[in-house]
């Protein structure tokens, strides 16, 4: 029903409007008594064989919702009912910011992909914390953190520290996002020197807390092999817990969509099916270079159980979805879990 009726209606709206409409709709129906329980019964798959213990956390299943979908922690309780094993909020910045000018999200239906240049639009970390104070502790929540657009790279570490401190009591793990292509010069923080400083600072801060929490690094699919070698070294040296691979790509090769239309869209990160192979290649290479010494969470082009299994076979411990959830609908997570 989703693909034949609901998706065609939603796709009549621009992507950002469809996103906001869906959020409001899901919120409204959850106010009806019994709807949450009904959705859990319909979509959640509870099976011990699906449990995964990764960086000290027991996940009820290996399929999570990637950052970017619920940036401000407004819908995580309701989204849990659709079967996710964990939900990652953010990317959050110290101060709320509007992001890039609209339009800033574009569908590529022929390629089952999206291009976005949202630009870390969010209401600020303190606003998200207020909503996270009401969380069910059984839900596993990751906090994806970044820097404000106006913060120069030389001062970026302070922004990540502010977000880390604010979220510490309310999330189960952290993700350091230095790989979005939509904040000017952000990806320069993936270079060895600034990345080492950033991760060492956060890990030292982590050690001062009552209980250390896992820290992961989210990387781009466009990194060079040399950068991957550096990333593996930095993870070992800093002592952080793992990697999320990968963010969106700036590469436009191999698309079916008309090249003139793609060019007219302009800058932005491409996600969905077109990034699947690039993401898998990065995961395989990371697993080889690290000899499996740290966990990898895979994201990029996961639509089916076969896609998820491909990522797990490549070396991932967990997977995340975003664009696939938009194209495949709320039954996707259940289908993947049943397949696994």
Describe the fold and architecture.
This protein has 340 residues and is an alpha/beta fold. It has a single domain (2-339), classed as Aldolase class I (TIM Barrel, Alpha-Beta Barrel), CATH 3.20.20. It contains 13 helices and 13 strands. The chain has helices at residues 2-10, 15-29, 35-43, 76-80, 125-132, 156-167, 192-207, 225-238, 259-265, 276-290, 305-314, 323-328, 332-339; strands at residues 52-54, 57-59, 63-65, 86-92, 105-108, 113-116, 141-145, 173-177, 215-219, 242-245, 269-272, 296-299, 318-321. An eight-stranded parallel β-barrel has the order 3-4-7-8-9-10-12-13, surrounded by five helices. It has a three-stranded antiparallel beta sheet with strand order 5-6-11, with no helix packed on it. Strands 1-2 form a two-stranded antiparallel ribbon. α7 packs parallel to α8, α8 (225-238) crosses α10 and α10 (276-290) runs parallel beside α11 (305-314). It is globular. The two termini are 23 Å apart. Pathway: Pyrimidine metabolism; UMP biosynthesis via de novo pathway; orotate from (S)-dihydroorotate (quinone route): step 1/1. Monomer. It is a peripheral membrane protein. It comes from Phaeocystidibacter marisrubri. This is Dihydroorotate dehydrogenase (quinone).
